[in-house]
Amino acid sequence: MSATTDSAEHATRAGFIALAGRPNVGKSTLTNALVGSKVAIVSDKPQTTRRAIRAVAGGPDWQLVLVDLPGVQRPRDALTERMQRRVESELAGADGALMVFNAEQGIGPGDRFIAGLLERSPVPVVIAVNKLDLVDRARAVAVLQAAEQLGVAESIFPISARTGSGVQELLTHLVSLLPPGHFYYEPEQRSDQSQAVLLAELVREQILMRTREEVPHAVEVEVESISQDDGLVRIEAVALVETESQKGILIGSGGQMIKAIGVGARRAIERELGGRVHLALQVRVRRHWRGDERVLDRLGIE
């Protein structure tokens, strides 16, 4: 092999970093902050992330593919079993793992369960203690010390994904873990999600913002069609729920809830697409969809 070819092969580095953490530690917010654009929806509800989203951060000579894993938890149905299998699969194929903690909540049994998974992983582990902007100094020090005592990480970074504090330092370190290699995605690409999935997630984000109790866990959104007519993007989408009572909550008195969700989703989609959007959103009952393998296959939840 010539020196020129060898030099070219080592001129760039690229690889995969898996984000692990229990639900609601801020992994999706951190993913968006590292990439510099919105690729993952954000909510304070557990199970917000259901798919392993590949988000792409890059520079002139490096490309870091972040896999924002579903919140790690003990499986309890077909949906969470798939989520758990995806976590284990992505960790096995990664070049590094980033474990995220919530400084407000501290380190509990769920975090230790995940740390046990990572301890068996052959890749280097980095810890980010997130939401430090929401705690005082004493609390921050205590959580950082607890993270260190887990003994699974080579480096620990105090950060706030929301404000951006510490994010650049974390990114620089993650890039240093990447092996030499060619880019996996086009330089301008920021996610591997299809447009239909991304738009469906933007609708689901609005539902999560506005609903409580059992509804967030039981809702999934599917975009059934996307078309363009005279500069107007027309989208037909359906929100799947499991019971008639959940459907009633989602529609709301006089249709006010579904109207608010639709307006919020349309505005979010318009920001994403940079143009005018007409969104037709329906609510449909599909009983026990979270346990239906065929529905999960159709929705792309592996």
> Per CATH, which architecture of the largest domain?
3-Layer(aba) Sandwich
Nearest-integer average pLDDT: 86
CATH superfamily of the largest domain: P-loop containing nucleotide triphosphate hydrolases
Give the helix tally: 11
Classified by CATH, the class of the largest domain is Alpha Beta
Number of strands: 9
Helical fraction equals: 25-40%
- H/E element sequence: HEHEEHEHEHEHHHEEHHEH
Distance between the terminal alpha carbons, to the nearest Å? 41 Å
Strand order of the largest sheet: 2-3-1-4-5-6
Alpha-carbon Rg, integer: 20 Å
The poorly predicted ranges are 1-8
Q: How big a fraction of the residues is strand?
A: 15-25%
Total domain count: 2
Coarse structural class: alpha/beta
Condensed summary:
This protein has 302 residues and is α/β, with parallel strands linked by helices. 39% of the residues lie in helices and 23% in strands. The protein has two domains: 174 residues, Rossmann fold, CATH 3.40.50.300; 105 residues, K homology (KH) domain (GMP Synthetase, Chain A, domain 3), CATH 3.30.300.
